[in-house]
Amino acid sequence: MVARKVRDTLPFLLCSEWQVKSSGDQSNTSENGNTNGGSHLDDVLDDDLIEAMEAESNEKFPEIHLPLKRSMLKAFRSMDKELKLHPTIDCFCSGSTAVSLVMQGQDIIVGNVGDSRAVLATRDKDNYLMAVQLTVDLKPNLPKEAARIHKYKGRVFALQDEPEVARVWLPNSDSPGLAMARAFGDFCLKDFGLISVPDVYYHRITDRNEFVVLATDGVIISPNIISLQKKKILYHLYRNAD
C-alpha cells in the first residue's frame, strides 16, 4: 500500500515542484505542506540535510540542473509528509524505497532513497556491455548513515544469524530491524535517524551508453529498463521496505 501510494503520488509532486522551480514561484506545495501535521524530528532533519547536501554537492552538479535537483529533494520530502498524514495507510512500521530517473537531453538525474539501484549499461573499449552502478545502496552500515542514526539515538547492528545485514533498531527495543538507512514511511524510526532525503546523482550520457536498469530485490511495479535512445522523461521504481 505504501509503495502504491508513492508510485501514484511522487511523479505528480516532482512535476509540480519542477514547474514551480522553472517559473520561479516559491509558494509551492511542499512549503505549504509544512503547515500540516506539526513539527517532527524528521522535518528538521530533512531541512538541515537538504541544505547540507546542496552545499556539499552543488559544485559537482551542473548549474542548469540545480532547479531539478532541488525539486527532487522537495518532492521526496512532500511525499513522506503525505504518507504521514494519510488517514488509512499505516506507515508506522511499513515503508518503501524509491529510485527515480529524469532524462533531460543527454543528461540523466537520479534520486535514490533506500537500497534500490540505477545501473547503467555501457560499452567498454572492446564493445562489450558492462554494468556501472549510478547510485549507492543507502545501508545502515555506511559510516555517514550510521553516524546520523547514532546521533539521534538509533542503533545499528546485525543479527547473529545474518551477520552481513546491518539493520536499524529503536533505542530501547530490538525492533523493527530495518535493513536500510533511508525510506519513505517507517515513522517509528524517523525520530531516530531514518530519513527520506534522497541522494541525487548526475550523469552525462555518451554514445557508449545503451540503457539504464532501475533494479530492486522487492516488488517491481513500474517499467524497469530504460532505453537511452527513447526520449521519455520520467521513470520510477519502488519496493516495499518492511
UniProtKB/TrEMBL annotation:
InterPro entries to which the protein is assigned, alphabetical: PP2C, PPM-type-like_dom_sf, PPM-type_phosphatase-like_dom
MF (Gene Ontology): protein serine/threonine phosphatase activity
Protein name from the UniProt record: Protein phosphatase-2c
Stored Pfam families: PP2C
Compositionally biased residues, Low complexity: 27-39
Gene field: LOC102588009
Region Disordered, residue ranges: 22-41
Cross-referenced SUPFAM superfamilies: PP2C-like (SSF81606)
Domain of life: Eukaryota
Domain PPM-type phosphatase positions: 1-242
